[in-house]
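Run AB hydrolase-1 domain-containing protein through structure prediction, thanks.
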Amino acid sequence: MRLLHASDLRAFLAAAAVAHLSSSPASRASHCAPPPPPPLRIRAFASARASPPPSSPSPSPTGAVVSAGASASAAAAACEQGAAKPAICTADELHYAPVPGTEWRLALWRYRPPPEAPKRNHPLMLLSGVATNAVGFDLSPGASFARHMSMQGFDTWIVEVRGAGLSMRGSEPAAAKTKSDMPPDSGLDESTTAQASVVSPAKNMSTSQPQISEVPVIVDKNMVGTSTPEEPQLVTKLSNTLAQLGETFSSYVKDSRLKNIADSFFDRVSELAPDASLASLEEVSEKILGLLELPQTSVISDQISNLSQRLVKILGEGQQNVSPRLFGWQERLSATIEDLQKQLELIISYDWDFDHYLEEDVPAAMDYIKKQSVPKDGKLLAIGHSMGGILLYAMVSKCGFEGAEPELAAIVTLASSVDYTTSNSSLKLLLPLADPAEILRVPAIPLGALLSTTYPISSRAPYILSLLRSQISAKEMMDPELLSKLILNNFCTVPAKVLLQLTTAFRDGGLCNRTGTFFFKEHLHKIKVPVLALAGDEDLICPPEAVYETVKLIPQHLVTYKVFGEPEGPHYAHYDLVGGRKAVHEVYPCIIEFLSQHDKVSS
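Sure, done. The structure for AB hydrolase-1 domain-containing protein is below.
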């Protein structure tokens, strides 16, 4: 069996992104929705995630809580109203924690300790890996890391960061829609359609809106007041999409990606024009590009609409004057516009990175948990698997640099590191995504839908995912049924920007912030939080040598390091530290002993 190469992964992810873009919005709303017919567990989750966010106002700062007790169908139906816990959530309670300054509400799965369990002083927060949700910590009643911890007396909370599992936005940005996209019975005329399809500008709390008089007005004597009779829908579709692109420029993504996308779009449009029309088309395109980069106002919107009309007229007149004519150019232009719409939709929907998790999501979750559990010293215990552990390292590193209190009594990291440079991690296959050009092609990776679709054939060579099992679990360490449940339920869509930032862990200096100005490993020697760092002997994703690269930077009196697995077996791969069949007898006691030692409250 040939090995998986970076070129294979690049092509594979590009194809996945195309499939994701081509799917319906409802299917993309479910981060982990498998192909039909899915198991009951997945059906309930898919229906819950496909439901639109509640139209009622966002919850108060205290958040919202959903308790157990509803049937699967009733829970799925009530989830739309935010009133019941969906069947996929097997926790005792489902809470939603608002992230200040955003529209996100993070899903927090809570497991309350039974009355007979030991009394603990601190709640326990669990953070999962990249592109995963809470299910990995609670696969089944007999294989639930979260439930096991709650039975040991810990008030246990699994945090689902933005975009994962049951976390949701308060209101999703609307995609541009034209009359041709509406159902036949929508009853909208052309003027109504044009008004409904323009995306509202996102609020910018840091800057005031510029005065209209300050915006330069471009005058073009070739602009016409009315569109050609045969192309009004195409003009509307183009102008609305360009308006969305302008709003995206000013509100969502502040880097060069959108300029490249716009340039690529107009390059494709120019392919529809005869040579004699190229000069005029290029002139109009340049004017539109200039307007897109300005603060968007009604004046700018009107000019973009007029220029869109002019662009379509140029294409139409050009075809009248050449022989042979390019038949179907309207359909090709419409398809080009739709491709741009889909790309913008995906970028807007998945415009976050690792720093958003670190600086916004995790602090919001911690504040919410503290308000609910009320620890006497205001601290939490925390366990992070894979990226979850990286988040914990990054958090204590920043606190060490700033001299701040991390509000963590102790942390446990499972298969985590901030520096992979000395290891032969299989994650190096993601390095091609470090090229910004790749982000344009693959702005988000629908890993959940991808694995759900391909899993039935993924364990047989020569398919590209034939190495999937060894990446997740060592031989005979997981029941096949549980492994299937993990793959079909635990993975989600992840922004390429998250992966882009994580790939810095494979470069000199290790993992850094989004601006490349802060390297987390450089400040681990300043931390004051006890750390238990665990590794698996056959972990291909985060090998023991990668874990040790981080461990060696932490003060020796604060860190405990252990590798699980024996030469003759059993062996531990990446997920086995959480859900392997031997973990409950070998790994869990080690973690519980460490947490118990650091659960004391200083007087």
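Confidence is low (pLDDT under 50) at residues 24-62, 68-83, 172-230, 461-466.
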